[in-house]
Amino acid sequence: MLHFVQAVSEELEDYNRQLRHIADTDKLTGMYNRGALDRILEEEISRSREKMEPLSLMVLDVDNFKGINDNFGHLIGDASLMCVANIIRESVLEIDFPGRWGGDEFVVIMRDADSEAALKIGERIRRNVEAYSIENGMLRMSISGGIATLQGLDDKESLFKRADEALYMAKYKFNKNNVQIVR
């Protein structure tokens, strides 16, 4: 009987892990989804304060994404989002948490990264997206990013707001295809 209970418990734990993965994963890109990122950001802010280590948040947006969908169709739009997701995953560190916030917007929670380290990662992502093309070179993409590093009384909302302000600057003040930091 003990063996049976143990086997059922292990099976239930496995199902729970699978359900958690499904609940935390963006269906299109396989990255963390908004709900998971929201929870992780809160946990990482607490961890960062406890360990007195830096934490940065980067918000990325595919430039002119509506035009990709309008000119190439939604299948190519989805393919371009998957390409960007793969580039982001390959460009960040193992300790980072990359995910899709929604639509054409991505987020990277960067553990143990100050502004300078976060900017290097952001620039790496930007260059790699810029260098990539699909549809036999007919479609070239770019991405804009905004970065904020955890400060004093920041909570997840204020940190995200500052990263979003930096993204806005990258897109509208500096004409896209760049990464900005708000301090």
Walkthrough of the structure:
With 183 residues, the chain is α+β, with helices and mostly antiparallel strands. Helices cover 56% and strands 19% of the residues. The chain has six helices and seven strands. The protein has helices at 2-24, 34-51, 65-72, 74-91, 115-131, 156-173, and strands at 55-62, 97-102, 105-111, 133-134, 139-140, 143-149, 179-181. The strands form two sheets. Strands 2-3-1-6-7 form a five-stranded mixed sheet, sandwiched between helices. Helix 3 (65-72) packs across helix 4 and helix 4 (74-91) packs across helix 5 (115-131). The chain is flat. The termini are far apart. 33% of the residues are buried. The model has no long low-confidence stretch (mean pLDDT 91).
Oligomer: single chain
Termini Cα gap:
61 Å
Major sheet? 5 strands, mixed
Average pLDDT works out at: 91
Concise summary:
56% of the residues lie in helices and 19% in strands.
What layout of secondary structure does this protein have?
Layout: H1 2-24, H2 34-51, E1 55-62, H3 65-72, H4 74-91, E2 97-102, E3 105-111, H5 115-131, E4 133-134, E5 139-140, E6 143-149, H6 156-173, E7 179-181
Parallel strand pairs: 6-7
Antiparallel strand pairs: 1-3, 1-6, 2-3, 4-5
Helix pairs in contact: 3-4, 4-5
